[in-house]
Amino acid sequence: MASPLNSQKTPTLVLIAPFFLWGTAMVAMKGVIDTTTPLFLATLRLVPAGVLVLMVAALLGRKQPQSWQGWAWIGGFALVDGTLFQGFLAEGLQRTGAGLGSVMIDSQPIAVALMARFLFREVVGPLGWLGLVLGIMGISLLGLPDEWIIQTTSGLGTALSTGHWPAQTNIFAGLASVDDLLAELLGHGEWLMLLAALSMAVGTVMIAYVAHHVDPVVATGWHMIFGGLPLLGLSAYTEVQQWQGITTTGWLAIFYSTVFGSALAYGVFFYLASKGNLTSLSALTFLTPVFALTFSTSLLAENLTMVQWIGVGFTLVSIYLVNQRDVITKAVIQTLAGPSVMRVAESISPDLSKALMTWVRSQHPIDPASKP
Q1: Could you tell me if 100 and 245 are in contact, meaning their C-beta atoms sit under 8 angstroms apart?
Q2: 328 φ, ψ (degrees, to nearest 5)
Q3: Does the keyword Transmembrane helix apply (predicted)?
């Protein structure tokens, strides 16, 4: 079945626009972050964009919050998806590359699927669980130091071949305490990006509740402003020389990240979501890290290690499986229920054919109109 997005014949460039803008905005932020401070940059990414979104919402006649519950939900949404998400993102981007950071950020559908499983009893399914496992493996390969991965893999290989774990394999050598371990991990920006992804995942779940009280576009605008104000305060209190080193090119990069990477990207995304299937649209989220990796490699000369490339591969496959698990499962079931597969199963064993048909029907009732 064609998705509603396709049935509306939305131009391909418009479909991929939000993901292109988000991916390239990461590259723009990385390009300027060495000349400014992370919390100040996060503030500029949020507050002006929030004002722009609210101006557009006013032009469209969207209603402002009418109850204290609405403002309370906006406040919570702002703290999680604004302050924490953008704060962790900017701090993490200072310590890692734009492409790698984007992969970590866009792993958030993995966390969303887990939370939806326990909060809303949503079915994850075999493909979803496979995607979650691959995602955890990919994030581990991206977030843990390469030497830890290499030493652990080497030690595991030795243990399997000899039956003994090599005594010299100690990935925690030189770490005197748990605090040292946390400092080592958080010193790698990938883990701050993971915290940003978890914040975004919680925000994604929260927006369903926020929308019960407030127009989602209005909520998006206000949450950007409210989420940016604590970052502005923290920047004023803890950071110095926030803007003195920013060049004209840097200000243009900030302008691009704010106007195109925040306000316009969210606007296009909400427009597409209102016109089509959000599930189909979410299947394109893997394009964001692809764009970020492409442009960070070509414009910023960022390079990944072999371990990190393997982690990128696992994570992108995981994002696709988690987002598209229902579509893929339905396609597999329809294929198994087809006459060709059934004839092969019947030729092998009538019992196999019956068992296969029973399993297919238990997974998804067959529409008589769809039978050949």
Answers
A1: no
A2: -65, -45
A3: yes
Handedness of CA 4, 6, 8, 10 (dihedral sign): positive
The domain limits of the chain are: 10-145+188-325, 337-372
H or E stretch covering 70: helix 68-77
What is the Cα–Cα distance from 38 to 127, expressed in whole angstroms?
A: 38
- Exposed, middle or buried by CB within 10 Å (0-12, 13-18, 19+), for 100? buried
pLDDT at 62 over 80: yes
Q: Is 178 exposed, middle or buried (0-12, 13-18, 19+ CB in 10 A)?
A: exposed
The H-or-E segment that residue 197 falls in is helix 189-210
Q: How far is residue 366's CA from residue 370's CA, in Å, rounded to a whole number?
A: 7
Task: List, for residues 11-40, the tens digit of each pLDDT value.
Answer: 778 888 888 999 999 999 999 998 999 999
- Distance between CA atoms of 29 and 98, rounded to whole angstroms? 8
Q: How many CA atoms lie within 13 A of 1 on its CB side?
A: 10
**Rounded CA gap, 251 and 69, in Å?**
38
- Burial class from Cβ neighbours inside 10 Å (0-12, 13-18, 19+) for residue 34 reads exposed
**Cα separation of 93 and 356, whole Å?**
50
Answer positive or negative: Cα dihedral of 23, 25, 31, 33.
negative
Q: Which two tokens stand for residue 339?
A: 């006459």
User: Could you report the per-residue pLDDT of 146-177, keeping only the tens digit for each?
Assistant: 676 776 677 666 666 666 655 555 545 544 45
- Nearest residue to 281 (alpha-carbon basis) of 313, 315, 323, 218: 323
Least reliable range by pLDDT among 139-148, 200-209, 274-283:
274-283
Please give the Cα distance from 176 to 180 (Å, whole number). Answer: 6
The model's pTM is 0.74
Hey, what are 63's tokens?
Answer: 């209603």
Q: Of the ranges 63-72, 147-156, 174-183, 335-344, which one carries the lowest mean pLDDT score?
A: 174-183
